[in-house]
Amino acid sequence: MSDNRTPEAVRATADVAAARDNSSHVNKLRNRNIRNGLIFIAPNFIGFFVLILIPVVTLFYTSFTKWSALGDPQFNGIWNWRRLFTDENFWDALVNTLYYAVVHIPLTLALAFGLAVLLNSKLKGRAFFRTVAFFPYITAIVAVAQVWSMMFDPKAGIINQFLALFVGADHVPGWLSSTTWAMPAVIIVGTWREVGYFMILLLAGLQTIPAELYEAAKMDGANAWQRFWHVTVPCMRPTLFFVTVTLTITSLKILDLTLVMTNGGPGTSTLVLAQYVYRVAFERADFGYASTVSLALFFICLLVTLVQFWYNNAKEK
Amino acid sequence: MVGVRRGELRHRLRRVVAAVAACAAGLSLTACGSGGADADGRNPDGSVTISMAGWTLSTRPEFQALASAYEKSHPKVHIDVKEYSADDYDKQLIADLSAGKAPDVFPMKNLKMYYTYASPGALADLTAVAAEYKDDANLAVAKDYVIDGRTYALPYRVDATVLYYNRTMLEKAGVDVPDGTWTWDDYLAVCRELKRKLPAAGYKDAYPTYHHTSFQAIPQAIALAQQSKGSGVEGQNDLFFSGDYSYLKPMYALFLKMQHEELTLSYNTVSASKTTYQSQFGTEKAALLPMGTWFMGPLADQQKSGEANKFDWGVAALPQLTSATIDHPVTYGDPTGFAVSANSPSAKKKAAEDFVAWAAGEEGAKVTARTGSVPAYTSDAALDAFFAKKGLPTDRQSREVIRKSVIKQENPVGEATQVIQDELNMAQSSILSETKSVDAALAKAENAIGNTGLLPKDQGK
């Protein structure tokens, strides 16, 4: 049997075959990449799935039940949610959490940014100062809270002894024993502890800004403030966005500091949402209602983060 | 080539999976088999091994002592004591119970969580075992564990709150030591007298008394015990679950007055500096101390080791609201008991129940007493064993106070117990830190408690 196809036709057939070969090769490669990719993320994803996703999904169900963690949860409809809206402790905790977040976030951000800019310059001994600023973050929280509690002691604490020099011993704040001053005290410790960590993140961002931009701005006659505002800040937008989102979420979830320093007191003046969840679950064995409160916290975090994403996207356009 | 590799890979993968499965199977076998016991939980040699929970075993010798003493008189039973954290005991136990891995015997640390454990059927019904002690006045405290006529735990320890006094300080100041007939008014008058006289006696920084208000029971459980009607649990339950907490007001008025007059450390100082009652009383910073009898053994030990100063001390009945109750002074204290897991296999359950009954009785009481804890069974022999410890007061009043007192519950048992206690705890913080008035703080707590719908009146009970 002879091949009576034209040479063009033969070439075309060969091209098609080669293309098919090639595409099957590409497919194989893609499959293999997907498989390898899945294998690489598997350890993390399995952990996330088992320890976070399943419990979170279960939480949606338990928030509609009455459950003491022993026996099976009993479905009780929207009772928990109705209870949430008339629960004075929940609203107290929400207000306290927002108070902490609204003061703590800008304060930490401003201080961390300021420190990062300062420690990005050619300062003498900056490695030492960077270490010093980061140090509180790696110190055990319980130890930190205990030492600060001693420093905040209204009578014997070093802070009030110092303040008394200026305002007199009768006018010093009661700190952890006063409803007015307990939250500021917690915010001071929280800010002191976290500034170093966010400074390191911002410092990493600062180091990616090309020096040419500053040089060009300088040539155009921009002063230091203009260079900061028109070069540093716009270039830092992605890092600042990431830092703000992380900082917001950690602020809304604050628990450890208040737990050790004040245990929510005096009264409910430093009771935050995460601690209220813990209290309802473990002090009262009311895991159903605790799920409801924690879902409320989850939705608040979600809402705030979505607003931040939306704002960032709008600005980037 | 690829095919070969893939085959090899698959083969290897299978081997890994098989190994992991074998490990998992092995682990689960060792977890539930405990040395090859049969379905009833009996070992091949006919003996039974039961597990028992305890906390901080190094400083709380009672668990191991009870286990060893029981093993000695019951050679066919072995008891493995499992260590739990003292602070997170209930959290760990709930996790183990809900995972079906709880020990066969576990203590009920207090009555606060008892209802939570008993109501979903996690605890074995011990009503038949408890019947043995039904008419035994020495174990009167067993009634605290009755829920709707059924018993799910038996006490082995009990503590009553009494008034500790530093005889050395009082005598040096020239003030009479408590004789067990004081009302709270007498107590206030003595504290004022001490405030005047202590500095001249050489105790310049000392306070007349110390109220350990980090414990909400001081003064809340005192008020509940002394204001409720009768000597049984019914009057107390009626008051506690009524949703009206105005019965706390007189005690708060007294406590606030005393902290204003600096007769005791203020709540703010206690909570900010995390003051311990051991150091306040043990280092003679306070001459009086209302506290549980659990402190007697440790105080004697601390005086021996030099952690506490050396001074002469004793305990007297807690001051009363009126002199009407001084013959049988009313105080509070929760029993500590043992419960049995409802899910243990039959042979283990039987052995566990027998152990719990033994620990509640006189034999167990003697063992508990020798470790420095007050036994729930208050016969002469058991109390002799307790007071035989070196360093404890030997006067008649100190010895009799436990038996003479009417001990009411710190935590009345019911579904709302934990919520009520947690809300009242927050109220205590507001009241004694003086951030809210007594009325406002109690109104807030009442509102929050009512809001949960857990009170008997809201459930149509």
From TrEMBL, chain A:
Listed InterPro entries: ABC_transporter_permease, MetI-like, MetI-like_sf
UniProt entry tagged with the keyword Zinc-finger: no
Main location: membrane
Cell location: Cell membrane
Family: Belongs to the binding-protein-dependent transport system permease family.
Transmembrane segments: 38-61, 98-120, 127-148, 195-214, 235-255, 287-311
Native organism: Bifidobacterium santillanense
Membrane topology summary: Multi-pass membrane protein
Name the record gives this protein: Sugar ABC transporter permease
Keywords attached to this entry: Cell membrane, Membrane, Transmembrane, Transmembrane helix, Transport
Residue span, ABC transmembrane type-1 domain: 94-308
From TrEMBL, chain B:
Superkingdom, taxonomy of origin: Bacteria
InterPro entries: Bact_solute-bd_prot1, SBP
Keywords, alphabetical: Signal, Transport
Signal peptide segment: 1-33
Pfam families registered for this protein in UniProt: SBP_bac_1
Subcellular locations according to the entry: Cell envelope
PROSITE patterns, per the entry: PROKAR_LIPOPROTEIN
Family that this chain belongs to: Belongs to the bacterial solute-binding protein 1 family.
Name listed for the protein in its UniProt record: Extracellular solute-binding protein
Organism: Bifidobacterium santillanense
